[in-house]
Specification:
heterodimer, A: alpha/beta, Rossmann fold, nine-stranded mixed beta sheet, two-stranded antiparallel sheet, 13 strands, 26% strand, B: alpha/beta, 2 domains, binds flavin-adenine dinucleotide
Chain lengths: 262, 324
């Protein structure tokens, strides 16, 4: 079973200060650490589990700058086989649709039985690329997949709905599935794997390799435009208790006591 | 813009909250644009919902077909696609739900129209819709415009208040264009959430732990606080994803909604998908070392600090307070 996994490198912002740059449309990237998008990491693990069971190769596809190679290598180190990076100045400012269009161009040059992506990117959070890609490739799809079983030519899928409810469905292959976190336990790369991955080639494709025109990609090919990024207004917010751990704990314990909590 | 179309979402015999949220926002936009607000209702034996929907829409289009009994993105795409092609609504609204996320991207792609997902607001700028979204886990806000109309949005659940309405809309039946069952994708069944030994939705006091705890071996630190407070332990999604607590302990959109007297969030950043499950708590306390963590904007009390220092100290003080 040959699998393509579309992955994206994202900045890790859970603990970082995120600042808007001078264009007002992007963030300052200098001090941020980048890694694979969380849900994509689960998609890669799912692909590894499937090829361990059924054989076949895993091709990683990413659209991004050369600096994404570090993330790609960390995923090659886990045992994925091939990697393609889509890089071209014309790809700049792609929205989710233009991104899917570019990925679709690359996927038309690769043989596969299944396409996996993460269901959500932790930076822009559109949850749009995977299902758009499916439509462009004219393939069946299912998003937010939390369980996957392959049975001759079909996949039995568990999808996450709200509030802890799930649905089970059956879908014909080839298909595009977007993977939700928690579906498996992503492995860590070994030192040996990392060393091997340093030597693996990463194939670079640009606009001319994808059979697309300038007008179909990047900002020109986008259907939406990011106008402005800003820091949300602070609002009322929490009353911050100040002091050393001992001191703030005493204050909070007192508040709990006043409210009859303890 | 002559018309705004809202897709009514329902599941297992119930209209989902996001439907009236969207119609409330839709009515506001329709008023400003002097447009008609139309609700699209797809399903089997769904007439009961049209009675509710007609209060919030000028018109309710009902497509009743046994092939639409359970949500199937492919079937919905065909039916809704036909309706949109025929009526050309300037704006189509779909919930940013598991259903909507499965349906809207292929539908917009098929129609060749722009889509902006997970909107928390839609404003009008020179008569054209402008979407507001949250990005980077809620640390920034983005404003996104459409390249031309017609266009489509998915709206975040819980982001739009439901306004009372009595529009007395007309109900119109529409023939289903589905001639045969969709075969490439088949719905099998729903699997409902499991209830474990502890029901966090019934708890008065909750200590909730997030990725800040780092490793499973650190869990006793928060267990100790929960015990000292006489509460139960809950968590954010990464903790259940890692298998450190069972899924019935997860708070948020894909977990449980809780309304305890006190909710102590430890090492939780406050992503919207988490906040939506706990913002109704009476008193919210956040312990986080990042002063910019979005959790502080919903918390009533905050401690900016290292949980590995604060939580043990707090556990001790609470134990002392109990003794006195
Ligand atoms: C469709 C969908 C559904 C989802 N459903 C849910 C859901 O139901 N519930 C849910 O919770 N999430 C849900 N999520 C995930 C959600 O988007 C966030 O990824 C998740 O809530 C983040 O969890 P967290 O705050 O624990 O981790 P992070 O965002 O990584 O935050 C960790 C926090 O810990 C702090 N921290 C780290 N170390 C320390 C320390 N030593 N002391 C103090 N603080 C520290 C950091 O500053 C940071 O703020 C969903 C996502 C999607 C796409």
């Amino acid at each position: 079973m040959d699998i393509v996994v579309c992955v994206k490198q994202v900045p890790l912002t859970a603990e970082a200060e995120v600042m808007v740059d001078d264009t007002g449309r992007d963030i300052k990237k200098e001090r941020l650490v980048f890694d694979v998008n969380e849900a994509d990491n689960y998609a890669v693990e799912e692909a590894l589990l499937l090829t361990e069971k059924f054989g076949g190769t895993i091709t990683l596809v990413t659209m991004g700058p050369e600096s994404a190679d570090k993330t790609i290598r960390s995923l090659l180190a886990k045992g994925t086989h091939e990697a393609v990076r889509l890089t071209d100045e014309h790809f700049a400012q792609s929205d989710a649709f233009a991104t899917a269009k570019t990925l679709a161009g690359a996927l038309k040059t690769i043989k596969f039985d299944l396409v996996l992506t993460g269901c959500y990117a932790s930076d822009d959070g559109y949850s749009q690329v995977g299902a758009t890609l499916a439509e462009l490739l004219e393939l069946p799809h299912a998003t937010m997949v939390t369980g996957l079983q392959i049975l001759d030519g079909k996949a039995k899928i568990e999808r996450e709905l709200e509030g802890g409810t799930h649905e089970l469905l059956e879908i014909e292959l080839p298909a595009v599935l977007t993977i939700q976190t928690g579906i498996n336990e992503p492995r860590y790369a070994s030192i040996l794997g990392l060393r091997k991955a340093m030597k693996k080639p990463i194939k670079v494709m640009s606009l001319k390799d994808l059979g697309l025109t300038e007008n179909e990609v990047g900002r020109a090919g986008s259907k939406t435009i990011l106008e402005r990024l800003s820091v949300p207004p602070k609002g009322e917010g929490a009353q911050i208790l100040e002091g050393a751990p001992e001191e703030v704990s005493t204050k909070l314990a007192e508040i709990f006591r006043e409210r009859g909590v303890v | 813009m002559k018309e705004i179309l809202v897709l009514a979402e329902h599941r297992m015999g119930e209209l989902r909250d996001v439907t009236l949220e969207m119609l409330s926002k839709g009515r506001e936009l329709a008023q400003a644009l002097d447009a008609q607000l139309v609700a699209g209702l797809l399903g089997r034996d769904v007439a009961v919902f049209s009675e509710t929907l007609k209060k919030w829409a000028h018109q309710v289009l009902v497509v009743d077909d046994s092939k639409l009994e359970n949500f199937n993105a492919d079937a919905y795409q065909k039916v809704l696609g036909d309706i949109i092609k025929k009526r050309q609504p300037g704006l189509t609204m779909i919930g940013h739900t598991s259903f909507g996320v499965d349906l809207a991207p292929p539908l917009a792609t098929q129609l060749g129209i722009p889509l902006i997902t997970d909107c928390v607001d839609i404003q009008l700028k020179d008569g054209a819709p402008l979407a507001t979204r949250q990005v980077y886990g809620g640390k920034l806000i983005s404003e996104v415009s459409f390249v031309g109309t017609p266009c489509m949005v998915t709206l975040r659940q819980g982001a739009f208040p439901v306004e009372e309405s009595d529009l007395k809309g007309k109900i119109a039946a529409v023939d289903s264009p589905l001639t045969e069952e969709i075969t490439c994708r088949k719905f099998l069944q729903y699997v409902e959430a499991v209830v474990g030994d502890v029901d966090i939705t019934q708890a008065d006091i909750i200590v909730s732990v997030g990725r800040g705890i780092r490793e499973e071996k650190n869990m006793p630190i928060v267990e100790g606080l929960a015990e000292a407070m006489g509460g139960v332990l809950a968590c954010s999604r990464p903790i259940t994803d890692s298998g450190w607590l069972s899924s019935d302990r997860q708070v948020g959109q894909s977990g449980r909604t809780v309304k305890p007297k006190v909710y102590v969030a430890v090492g939780i950043s406050g992503a919207f998908q988490h906040i939506t499950g706990m913002s109704g708590a009476e008193t919210i306390v956040a312990i986080n070392r990042d002063p910019n963590a979005p959790i502080f904007s919903v918390a009533h009390y905050g401690i900016v600090g290292d949980l590995f220092q604060v939580v043990p100290a707090l556990t001790e003080k609470i134990a002392e307070a109990k003794e006195n």
